[in-house]
User: Fold this.
Amino acid sequence: MQSSAGTEPDKRAYLDVVGVGKAFKGTTVMSDMDFRVARGELVSLLGPSGCGKTTLLRIIAGLTSADAGDILLDGRAITRVPAHRRNISVVFQSYALFPHLTVAENVAFGLRARHVPKGDIAPKVSEALQLVRMSDFADRPVAALSGGQQQRVAVARVLVVDPVLLLLDEPFSALDRKLRETMQVELKSLLRDRNMTAIFVTHDQEEAMGVSDRIAVMNAGRIEQFATPSELYARPQSAFVMDFVGLSTRMRGRVKQVEGDVMQIDTASGMVRAPGALGIGTDVTIGIRPELIQQGAGENTITVTLADAMVLGAKTQLHGVSHAAEDRLLCEVPGIQTGMDRGQDVSFGWSVKDTLVYEAAH
Assistant:
């Protein structure tokens, strides 16, 4: 399990979602959902819109009831415990701050709702604002703050009540790219320092890769793969995960021959060898991460017609003309490549062991 600086997550299950199902108006959006998070772990639910990640988050929070299954938190069943008694805090996409209150009053709201003694509120608010570097803004109205400052206030408001679990629903989506990346680093560090367990909902793969110990990639109400960012990227278990996490060259093909544990696969771009032993005639999807492809010959080599050469800072991305509608031919080479013209032939080469193969969906 990955971990940044700070306390290593406890490997034992802290949050346990067992066999959870949910339907809306007769349409099943989730069934037999099993999902486990360790104490102190930062986990992301990653997937396209409508895949069920926000529904799962709301069921954990108690804001939506499950039709089936159980939820345990630190060994205690909370399936039928109302949301306000779970001590689970949620940071919503809209932040849900009170515009007529000051920063300090917003942060203090949860403490007052819990009937914390008046004399204890100010020190707790001060500590929470200090954690998010907003102490100098305590008396300002929320409406006068920038998006990043409002996000910090929303985080302070949930931390001040010492939740047993923190849930974040697309918390950075309203921020510009640079600020979003800064807030991701700051929040991850803050949660690490406090050894908090947190679940992020996002459709942004870079955000999930940056903040998470593990990522649950969701599709159509189920988890396709639940693993560390490095495992997801290097060894995706399905073509969907391969496509959703990172870029890849992608080709359709058919197994023509199998020799030991290596297959010969016929594609529109030529013959490709790959690890595995699927049956001859099996339709497959082939994937190769673009940084593992070199310009020139390799154990596998295809010749493509260059469609574009995009300079992306320290690397250049080469796009080949697809020989089949569903294929995507992509290579990343280090440095700035010049003198490459659209329409010229380019060789893409890579090793057999770096070739990913999945049975094609029909």
